[in-house]
Each structure stands twice: as structure tokens, then as C-alpha cells.
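Aim 2 progress. For 17 kDa surface antigen, the working sequence is reproduced below.
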Amino acid sequence: MRLSSLLFVVAMAGAVAGCTQSGGGYGQPTGPLQTQGGRAVAGAVLGAAAADAMDENMVAGAALGALAGGATCGVPGMAPCY
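Predicted C-alpha cells for this construct:
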């Protein structure tokens, strides 16, 4: 049962990944790290992974990572967010 659920999630992620627009038409950002939401999601994933590696609370690590990732939009010297 667990293997079929995992395969279903992987198949759905692959299907949704095929729906992304490449090229950034109409002045839209082309990369996922060019928006504040994209940076927050990346920070959450990295924060949860770091917390899991250190045997800490993964939810707290994800929350702190999301806050840190989202806050990088205003840092001088980094690429701006759109």
C-alpha cells in the first residue's frame, strides 16, 4: 500500500512538472528562485532537511527555513524578487 502511494505521488509530481512554462513569457520570471514564494519553498525544504539531519523538529526547521528564504528578497547583492 505504501509503495503504491509513493508511486502515485511521483507520477503526479511528474505530470505537474510538465505543466510549467519555460522561457518566462510576458515578463514573468523564468526561475523558481526569482519569486519570494519560490525562495520560501526552497528554504522550507532545506530547513526541514537540515533539521532532520540534526535530529531536531522538522516542522520548526521548515518554518524557519521558509522565513529565511522569503526574507532573502530584500538582501542587497542578491538577485531581486519579482
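The chain has a mean pLDDT of 76. This observation will guide construct design in the next reporting period.
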